[in-house]
Known about the structure:
The chain is an alpha/beta fold. 38% of the residues lie in helices and 17% in strands. It has helices at 51-65, 81-93, 107-115, 128-142, 156-173, 189-201, 247-261, 267-285; strands spanning 22-24, 35-41, 73-77, 96-102, 119-123, 147-148, 180-184, 206-212, 241-245, 290-296. Helix 1 (51-65) crosses helix 5 (156-173) and helix 5 (156-173) crosses helix 6.
Amino acid sequence: MPLAPTTPLPSLYDLGIGNTPLLRLTRWDGLSDSVRLYAKAEWANPGASVKDRAAGRMVLAGLASGALKPGGTLLDSTSGNTGIAYAWLGARLGFGVRLAVPGSISAGRRRILLALGARLDVSSPLEGSDGAVRLARQIMDEEAGPFFYPNQYDNPENWKAHYETTGPEILAQTDGAVTHFVAGLGTTGTFRGTTARLKAEKPGLRAASVQPDSPFHGLEGLKHLATAIMPGIHDPTLADEEFFIATEEAQAQVRETARREGLLIGPSGGANLAAALRVARREAAAGRRAVVVTVFPEPGERYLDEPWWASP
Length: 312
């Protein structure tokens, strides 16, 4: 039911977003009793991804400012998960959703978006998420519709969602013991907001960012920043180290995680875990104590039709 003009705005937690489980991962070689490895299971959000946090915060800020009105239309670009978040929020809160998406978007994501009532404008599959960004900007310039354009790549509410929720949750769930945080860069909101909050509370914490190792990659949701449109919210000073992960390594990590941990994660989660394991194994080899936390942004069920699942 759409919000009435006088209805108080909910919070992210009121919408069921956040407070996701922190899973301990124990089935990996090269660790030690003094090194613990965890991942935030972001598929526990209503839209089944970490993007619910940023989308929810941007939508609520838009409603609070009046830039987004009940019955209005939100327009943004997305490669999938943020769009799914916008779509279910639109259905729940009573606004329309129009999305510019790359032609390479998976069939599963496309079906979910259409099922939730989103209108899709499709850009060239060869241009990836950057092509969708350009298409959304073109629609804004050429059409007279009164759109709310949150612009997830440049909107500070994106990273603030993680500063206010993801960071404090990790601190509480590890009893403040977290020493390392590892996360991928797409819009960069998850990494920036979470890292900034963790470092504010624990100045000695080390943060590692994760990117694809090539501009031509299969890691949906992540960007090879050197060759992509740079997100306006990116803060390059926050990462203490960077990891560049090949698509094939991330996919192999996904398959191995299913068989070792019984968890179905997506390729971006596979890239995050591959990097987090490097950090954890390095700390174990050096005889240091560490609590390494990473993020599983989405469920692997959305990728089970992909041919790389059939690899050994």
